[in-house]
Amino acid sequence: MNISRWVKIVGEVGGYALSRAITARRPRILMYHRFSRLPKNGYVSAEEFEWQVRYIARHLNPVTVSQIASSLYGSHELPRSSVAITVDDGYQDFYSIAWPILKKYGVPATFYVTTGFVSGDLWLWPDQLRYLLMKAPQSQATFDLGLFRIETPLSADDFESEFWRVNQILLLADDAQKLQCLASMARTWQVELPKRPPEAFKPVTWDQLKEMQAEGLEVGGHTVTHPSLARVSSEQARNEILGCGKMLEKMLGNVTRSFCYPNGTPDDFVGEQVQFVKDAGFSCAVVAFADDGEHRQRYAMRRHASSSDQFQFLKAVSGIELLGMKFRGHHLETRYD
Questions:
Q1: φ/ψ of residue 229, rounded to 5
Q2: Yes or no: is domain 3-119+203-247+259-328 CATH 3.40.980.10?
């Protein structure tokens, strides 16, 4: 029997409750991205998300990320068994699907938005990549697009694996190279990218953010254009972070907000950029991974992935995943002064 199967069996007979009790003084942050009405690959369905939110409302104390930071690094008192739900990027499906469920159960959340995306100045590069691959030629050919080669036609069975293969290559490229590569793909395949994202990739609006903020949502920063901050110059990183903070203040007022690093892996973290996050007035910052360090660094607070996988959700929210990381000594570096 593998370890996951063992953990699942133990969890179902009281292990989840025991883990919640053991980790009651260790707040956790959950990470989400996309939502759908019905089950869909890469999305959390409305039914599954409601089950998870209901579980949190019954067994834990939901808070925002800034409330966790205020407790750990300030005078705010945090209840036991606190957990924060975070959602990245700024898609419309948060407003239409996730937020009504959160409101129904009185559960707050932190929504990290890419301000240029919300303003309609751009659409996110992974969505552009997916759109272009959907428009790939049906003829049999091999295309050398600089950073990678791709063979067409793409079969339905191979589409997702090919998308993620190219996605990972572009994640490691400089931001300018990445955008040039996508533009080259569009030219080569004679595909015109719409100025505004299609319905499937549509952002939330500023009016919707104002509405949700008034109802208790923490709207956090996620840069202006969503680059990996390790793949841009120091000046561009500064403009991305401070520009995001200024736009949030202009559109939503001067309130406490946290920041989220795009992509957020250890390879995307640059310690020197923490000063920009502080200068922009953000209360704290989160990364997109978890380890045994928890929230020891105010500007690199750890997050646990959640998804449509109910077992992964239960491991993360109950603290079993955290306890496992501590037992193994699983640690990732995010150094800054």
A1: -70, -10
A2: no
